[in-house]
Glycosyltransferase
Amino acid sequence: MRRVCLTLPTNRACTATIAAVAEEAAYGAREFGVEVHLLVLDSSAPADLAAHRTAVAALPPAPGVVVHHLDEERQRAFLRETVAAAGLPGADRLLDLMLPATVSYGACTNRAFLLAEALGCASVHRRDSDSRYQLHDGAPVFPIRHELAALGRRAADVAGSVTRSRLDPGCADRTVALAGASFIGEPSVDVAEIRTLDPEAYHEVVGLSVPAGHPEIWRRNLIDEAFRGAGTTPFTTDLSTLTLVSPTRVDMCNVALGREVYGRIPLPPATDTIGTDYFLLHVVRHARLPGVLHNRHIVNYYTGERRSDEGFLAYQLRFAKYLLAAPRLEAVYTGLAAAGDALLDTSGRVRPDAVSALVRESAGLDPAADEARLDVLDRRYRALGGRYATAAALFAERRDRMLAEARSDMEDFALLVDAWDSLTAHAKGTAVNHLPVPRAASAPAVTP
């Protein structure tokens, strides 16, 4: 039976989301006859972790669903044995990159990738703790419908089951490697207020995330669309497109990838940096691997923590670090685009050596551009005043550290890419010591 991994990484209270994602797992198993491994990777504080354990234990029986709830202690044990089995140099460093002490959007998903390999899954389907499903005629609109219908199949065989195809016929024999959509609802609270306070400041600050060289009219369009998802129009009927999916049309709370991608290349493990977890979407597009873009968008909302002064500063730091990472990431994406089909080996799989070479080269970009970006943030945020001035002071205090990390984060990523093939291979041999033997069941099997 085909096994898939539906994963929910979390570091905050989300009992309602756990129940909702479990419903999606049951739907996927029921409608597609697959074994769904619901994987909750929990980095929450003790009280929230305890509540999550209660929520997982209370999940109703679901045929074909196996539930795994792993706190950081169990995740670390799994990673430690996997790294040891791989026999790679710098084991402690690899462990830090896989399970860092602070927030890393890439690292939490990389752990899901390795555990999916251990569980024998063919794909990973990622959701977020601050997401909800749309309703249509009273029923949840589950993205997994399009994901399971397309992933792992030859593109030519999927063409007849989507609304439309915009795929180059030359890619028809390739396997569909990605399925995704975005979110509807409130745009990013990290930047939306800047637009209200000062549209020109918004244009300059968000413009730092747009690659240089675009004509101004294109730049303005890209800036206007950034961080806004799919708007606010609710779901009414399915619309799906077989295509080379644009990363700007997909959100990481609503994406699924085949193991032929994540089994070859991890995500950047940079800490306190938004946006880096979109890396594989760019790899898929530039390697000309087919994908399905659909409209089962997830409903976006923000927790009270995100709106607090402490949460505001944390997310502004992550946004600033992303703006520092953007030129290096864009240099890699440019290299990926130039390589095109050369990114794939003779079996049609992504070549890790081609990716790591580009990542390592990007680490050496001129740091003067990074300093100029921090200067823009300092000038604009101090002019905005209030909490933004406080954020500017934080950036100034951490300036040297942020500049150093802009380079070292890419060096760390290259290191992880080089190690990834060995890690994924040895994950399969270590899972049995920490996870139950996967099985379909009339009631979900649960690991505490």
About this structure: Residues 399-430 form the longest helix (32 residues). The CA atoms of residues 13 and 48 lie 5 Å apart. Residues 436-444 have pLDDT under 50 and may be disordered.
